[in-house]
Amino acid sequence: MVDLFTEKLSDAEQTVAFGGRLSSACTSATCIYLHGDLGAGKTTLTRGFIQNLGHEGNVKSPTYTLVEPYELADWNIYHFDLYRLGDPEELEFMGIRDYFADNSHCLVEWPERGEGVLPLADIDLTLRYDGEQRIISLQANTETGKQVLQKL
Hints:
Layout (H helix, E strand, L loop, with lengths): L3 E6 L2 H14 L4 E6 L6 H11 L14 E5 L4 E6 L7 H5 L2 H4 L4 E6 L13 E8 L2 E8 L2 H9 L1
Parallel strand pairs: 2-5, 2-6, 4-5
Antiparallel strand pairs: 1-7, 3-4, 6-7
C-alpha cells in the first residue's frame, strides 16, 4: 500500500487537474486536510476536486463562512477554510461532526486551527512552491487514505 505520494505541478491548470484526479480516486467518504501557505493553491485544487464530481458553478474560498457546501448527485462535499477560526470550540457550535458522514468528502484548509475537534484526516495534503512550480505531497493516515493514494 502507498503511504506517501509526491508530484510536481507546473501551473494552476495542473493543480485543478490534480484535484480532479484526486476526487476520482476518492470512492468512499474521505477527509482531506489541505496544508500550505496563503496562495499555495489549496482552493485551486479544491475547485478541480469539486468540479470533477459534477459541480458546474464557481468554487470560492469559504474564508468568511468557514464552510461552503456542495450537494451533488452522489456526494456532499464540504470545503472548510479555518484560517479565521478564533477557537476550535466554534466548530462544535456549528455541528462540525455532522459534516463528516458516509456520503461526504470534506476538504479542510488550515486544519491546525481546529485541532482537537476535527476527526483524523484520511490524507494530509501539502502544497508548496518550488520556484514557479508547486510540489504536492500527500500522506495517507488511514486505510481509506492508502486506497486513494494507490489509485493516483
